[in-house]
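Quick start: what a row looks like.
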Amino acid sequence: MTFRNPVRHITVDAHDPYRIAEFWSALTGWPLGPDDHPGDDEVLVDPRQPGVPGLLFIRVPEGKTVKNRVHLDIQPPSGTRDEEVGRLAGLGAEVLDDQRRPDGTGWVVMTDPEGNEFCVERSAAERGDG
């Protein structure tokens, strides 16, 4: 299948692109771009998979002031949603809103170290998809 305009990057504003890219690299397991270094104004978290957009962090002077209009939903490849929430908290993420339900469904809204929201969903195994 050929796409007319495939998405190349998802771009996120940042105060410290390298620092926030390191967080997202640890979250995704994707490496930083080979030419990216601390202090750079643009840093890429590169999935190195054709058709999968990278995460590009660009330096901006202003801070985040309102809710994201776009966010990423994270599904752990193994383990559980709750284990992933714990792992990401250890990397510097914070829980913003807990939407977990007693029956095990739901998600957790977290923020990265610069306050950008993302959601952690149940793993495929927890959903019965794998």
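That is the whole record. Helices lie at 17-28, 81-90, 124-127. The mean pLDDT is 93.
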